[in-house]
Amino acid sequence: MAQSEVTAQHAIAHHPALAHHFENMEQQREASTLGMWVFLITEIMFFGGLFLAYSIYRSWYPQVFAEASHHLDILLGGINTVVLITSSLTMALAVYHSQVGNRGKLVLFLILTMLLGLTFLGIKVIEYSHKFHDGLIPGIHFHYEGPHPQQAQIFFWLYFAMTGLHALHMIIGVSILAFLIYFAWRGRYSPEYHSPVEISGLYWHFVDIVWIFLFPLLYLVGFHVKG
Amino acid sequence: MSEHIVPKKTYYAVFGALMALTAITVFVARFDLPWILNIVVALTIAVTKATLVVLYFMHVRYSSRLTQVVVVAGIFWLVIMLVLTASDYVTRGLLAPVVSISAQ
Amino acid sequence: MSTAVIPVEAKPRTTYLNAGQTLKSWLLTLDHKRIGILYLISVTFFFLVGGIYATLIRLELLTPQGDLVSAQTYNKLFTQHGITMVFFFLIPSIPAVFGNFLLPIMIGAKDVAFPRLNLLSWYVFMTGALFASYAMFAGGVDTGWTFYPPYSTNYANTYVIATGLGIFIAGFSSILTGLNFIVTIHTMRAPGMTWFRLPLFVWAQYATSLIQILGTPVLAITLLLVALERTVGIGIFDPRLGGDPVLFQHLFWFYSHPAVYIMVLPSMGVVSEIIATFSRKPIFGYKFVAFSSLAIAIVGFLVWGHHLFTSSQSVYAGMLFSLLSYAVAIPSAIKVFNWTATLYRGSISYDAPMLYALGFIGLFLIGGLTGLFLAALGLDVHVHDTYFVVAHFHYIMVGGALLAYLGAMHYWWPKMTGRLYPEGWARFAALVVFVGFNLTFFPQFILGYLGMPRRYYTYAPEFQLLHVLSTAGASILAVGFILPAIYLLWSLKKGPIAPADPWLATGLEWRTSSPPPPENFERTPIVTWNAYEFRPQEEAEVIGGGKPDASSLTGE
Questions:
Q1: In what residue span(s) does the Cytochrome oxidase subunit I profile domain sit (chain C) (predicted)?
Q2: For a 10 Å CB count at each end of chain B, is N or C smaller?
């Protein structure tokens, strides 16, 4: 009896994914989750600087921001919002299936999440190319027809900086998903060890939250003033 | 300290709420509301959506107190940055310009 | 078989230093102690580089005319001095060197929570340093370390973007270190090591890490915006195009004021350790000192506007920031009072680390109090951008952070290297540093009060006497830095072998051998005592590296 308990403990202590400096899997999992949350805090502050700039300039030039936002495509932005929220659902379900140990469903939902992420990026490329054709790229070639073109340019650099940084995070997220899919398919994750899926999920949801704010602030800000 | 598994139907319910809120925010944005209500409504809905994602998709409702503190701290520091900077911008120009009394 | 019978081992015991001898074993190490040493070598190098700039600055200022360098070169000198010292020496100094080396040992862990991230942080730091060095060799940068637009965005024709990119990248290493420490302190403490048994150095590191993770990203985004504005010129901070240059200052100082606390908080942690050890008393008011670290970290984020008093910031915001700046003095004063109370009736010994710690208290006091002068709205208008400011922050950064860095270097040198340094020389060097420092920077308070503006390479002849004193002090200070460099390197080969606990101190780092074994302890320590509980030596058990005293005294 005592002998079997010892071997059981031995088996836990030597889970292949347990790094040498942790006492047990629980401690390792706690550390990786906390680590991701702390990282997300730095992300909040990173985007925070841009949100601050947005707030200042929007409070200075509310009319211009409203007019300039008419050049953004609410339909495409709206579709992307739906796509991203759906991808958050599939990511949450992927984490669920990693927790209950359903490898097939885990891989399926990870692939769905990645596809939705790629769809988002594809639509973003279409939007960016429209802006390029309309001559709305600040600094490079900017031909804005409405009043106060310089202040409108501020709106557009904020638009490109914020959505561009967001898209960069999406690209990183999609790359992480590619790794997760590979390892999930190889059967590395189990109910005992699935921290990578879980903390990647946290990252993915965070990127979704950023978009939840970007959509109304950039696309809907001038919807009510018909241009 | 074993982890909490959120039932699937919670995820679907949250997803439904997020979709509904997205529809509402687009719908409301069409109307020209008085004062700054447009942005107030838009941000309220966005904050609600973000809260749902954080609490359920990111499991913070079921997480340790430490995780909850970390989340709140992050938001708190963002608020510090926004509010204290705003303290400059909203009070600029409130002081009457100094009348020059130098020799005519 | 036969060796098992012989009591004295023929084979030297395994330490983190001899666990692997190849260059690869250092460059790919995941051991927090070795990463600490990598950082030690890197930041010492950058300290030397920054010191060379300082030397040239002081030589130029020996005479009122601009006879050594041109105005443009002088601008580059003080900019490179500031950037090198702030971003590549002071910010990584104590956290990345001593934090990395000691923090896991102090809490009884085998390593930090994320050893790979820890190594990555060093490579990220070196990459950032590479960019900054490229900019330096290509021709340097002349914006001042503060990168204020519109000069940095529209006018400076120097290597602003490469330098900014270097700082941007190095910032991520700071974030990774902070993240690692926070998670390590939360999840890796040994059984029985409760929060209120942690050494105060760990508390200070925790508070520092908070600032690193909350502030650094804002600096990163700010530098990105400067680079963007410089390349495409879209009016981010340009008033002609509808932007606001003051917004840059808000964003920059949101990080850079708390960054001062990144430099001084770990120093305060070091001083707490040293004061307790060399007074042989527990720190008076442990909890107050611990929480004052957190208070400094938090309140430190609320005061950045005091850098903008003369930058067309609203007067009302100025009043608010002035008031909040005074509030930071409270937790800082708590620390100074508690250290003083610890000294009271302690059995004090004046070893070299203690000399540095006592120097820190005095100089930090002067630096802090003159900070209050500068936080006062009316007085700041008079002394803003004068040598008064220069003297003030050098009292904090050199008199505070650097003295504590040297103190820490001496205090933990036996632990890190397994060798004792020559105590007499060390005490002498500490005195030289103290005298040289004060002679360098005290005249600058007077210079500033009399109206000498900072960042000028020529000046009115009546300021010359004070400038000559300052340059003379700087040369004494240089001697004070060269001396430890010589005797510490000497001690690596010739110094007496250090016992596990040469100071009869209390922390867990003294419960393992000097230098520690690769995994710090032979078994996970179980902590049953409070920090700074001085007990008879025979009770203090050694739990690392076998019988370290026996083997290390006979070894080699």
A1: 26-528
A2: C
User: pTM of the predicted model, to two decimals?
Assistant: 0.92
Domain count, chain A: 1
| Each residue's pLDDT tens digit, A59-71 | 999 889 988 898 8
Looking at beta carbons, which residues of chain B come within 8 Å of C304?
84
CATH number at residue A33: 1.20.120.80
The reply to whether A225 falls in a domain is no
CATH code of the domain in which C326 resides: 1.20.210.10
Tell me what the pLDDT averaged over chain C comes to: 91
By C-alpha distance, which of C48, C49, C46, C69 is closest to C57? Answer: C69
Gap between the Cα atoms of A46 and B85, Å rounded: 16
Closest partner residue to B88 (CB to CB) among C186, C250, C302 is: C250
C527 domain residue, yes or no: yes
Q: For residue C13, is it within any domain?
A: no
Q: What's the pLDDT at C2?
A: 41
| Total count of domains within chain C | 1
Note whether A161 contacts C: Cβ–Cβ < 8 A.
yes
Question: Can you give the residue range of the structural domain that contains C389?
Answer: 32-554
Most A CBs within 10 Å, among B10, B21, B26, B91, to test the A interface: B26
B91/C317 CB distance under 8 A: yes
Residue with the larger pLDDT of the pair B36 and C321: C321
CB distance A113 to A91 below 8 Å: yes
**Chain A residues lying within 8 Å of B40, measured CB to CB:** none
C453 DSSP assignment? B
In a domain, A110, yes or no: yes
Q: What is the predicted pLDDT for the residue at C411? A: 97
Handedness of CA B7, B8, B13, B17 (dihedral sign): positive
Nearest to A19 by CA among A10, A29, A28, A7: A28
| Crossing angle between the packed helical segments C352-375 and C245-279, to the nearest 10 degrees | 150
Q: Which of C402, C376, C372 is nearest to C478 (CA)?
A: C402
Task: Choose, out of A25, A29, A42, A157, the residue to mutate when testing the contact with C (most C CBs < 10 Å).
Answer: A42
Interface confidence (ipTM) of the complex: 0.90
Partners of B91 on chain C (C-beta within 8 Å) are: 314-317
Domain contains C22: no
- Interface residue ranges in chain C relative to chain A, Cβ cutoff 8 Å: 109-115, 175, 179-180, 182-184, 186-188, 213-218, 220-222, 225, 228, 231-236, 241-244, 247, 250-251, 519, 524
Output the six-digit token pair for B70: 């970390």
C314, B87: Cβ pair inside 8 Å? Answer: yes
CA distance C300 to chain A (A): 16
Q: What is the pLDDT of residues C443-493, one digit of tens each?
A: 999 999 999 999 999 999 999 999 999 999 999 999 999 999 999 999 999
Does residue C177 contact residue C209 with C-beta atoms inside 8 Å?
A: yes
Residue C3, pLDDT score = 41
Residue type, C250: H
